[in-house]
Amino acid sequence: MTERTGQPTGLADDRALLGRTSTAERVADILRSRIAEGYFLPGTRLSEDSIGGALGVSRNTLREAFRLLTHERLLVHELNRGVFVRVLTVEDVEDIYRTRALVECAVVRGIGEPPYALGALTEAVAEGEAALRESDWKSLGTANIHFHRALVALAGSARTDEHMRGVFAELRLAFHLVDDPRALHEPYLARNRQILQALQLGNRKQAEELLAVYLNDSRERVTEAYEQRVSDMT
To answer: Which residues contact 55 (CB under 8 A, 6 or more apart)?
Structure first.
């Protein structure tokens, strides 16, 4: 694989998020979000000097943030070479989808009686529709992740939200190795809308059924495309 060097493009804009009490956890949150938004590609080498300078944090703080994200399987440290954004295996992708099915379907099943707080889901669908109008497939993929993060948030569990943020960041790494992002993301915008409509009607059983089929179809599509891309690279 061709080595890429991570550029801190736009990262300085996130410096204000650190506030006056900068911590490794906050730096990790920023980098995790950047990975989930697609700014750092699999195989990218992360430069301590560039990223530390952009965020205005010490080398030790940044290294601790890298350690946290390595523990989350988003980064990997290679001896004498540096820290890289992880390249997932096909087995990783399968496991991500198993986790998604277990968590997301359980959330929908257990959210109780309507009406539900669906504002963030509605916004994510609108975000996806705007990306579709612009033929911006990267942003469409981001909107899709936002939809499913909002779905998980319906559980009202900070621990679940935290765990799934890492899972969705890993998912973005898998998306990067799919050659045709339009074919990957476009069909699922309509399916997100169907899930939202079922929840708006208070029919969580239908929403769960739609979601289960959605996740299985997405798993098959991503895994097939991923296997082909990895095969081409080796």
So the answer is: 8, 11, 12, 14, 15, 18, 22, 27, 30, 62
